[in-house]
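Aim 2 progress update. The chain analyzed this quarter is reproduced below.
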Amino acid sequence: MLLYEELLLLALDNQKGSIHFSASSALPFSLAGAILTELYLQGRISIVEKKLVVIDKRVIGILLLDEALHLLIEQSKDKSMEYWIESLVNKINNLQDKCITGLLELGILQKEEHKFIFIPYYRYPEYNPRPEIDLRDKLNQTVLEHSWPEEHLYLLLVLIKACNLVNVVFTRENKKIAQNRLKQLVAASAAGTVNSLFAAELYKAINNALAASTAAATSSISCRL
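Predicted structure tokens:
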């Protein structure tokens, strides 16, 4: 699975097929951040002086990643992580549905149509629970270890924290340990490695984008009143 697919799978309620309430507000920005992180892991972008820089323009062959990469290439100037997270949320139509596509193709989720009055909507309960079980086991084991996790898991853990999924992902006995471990991992971003610098900007950008969106929504409601 790709990083954004793993994040979305963890954010979905297994039986209901809908997003856990705790993650609903942050999920669009976290998925956009996960797409950028996947581009980073694929060697297409890097971070230089807190700006995202395209270092390889070759297509990847995955529609959603290539769409995001094309948007970055079109931009004439290097921009911040926060700028691109907000841009992907605003410019990629049906972002969440596109992230779900791969999970449907892998046979991990199934698509169910429901109706509210006459308006159709969809739920995505799990069809094959084994991939999520294995992923959760790996994440729970990782937070119990004192060693630095490999880069994919490290960046996924940062996204889990940014998306308010700690209480959803980790077992009851590991939640407190996970909270403390993830705080350490995010704080360790000051260590100065490329991965940690990327993670620091990623975490900050998701939180800033969410805060800006919340403030705009609150202001809009206030104006109507």
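DSSP finds eleven helices and five strands in the chain. The two ends are 45 Å apart (CA to CA). These observations will guide the mutagenesis experiments scheduled for the next reporting period.
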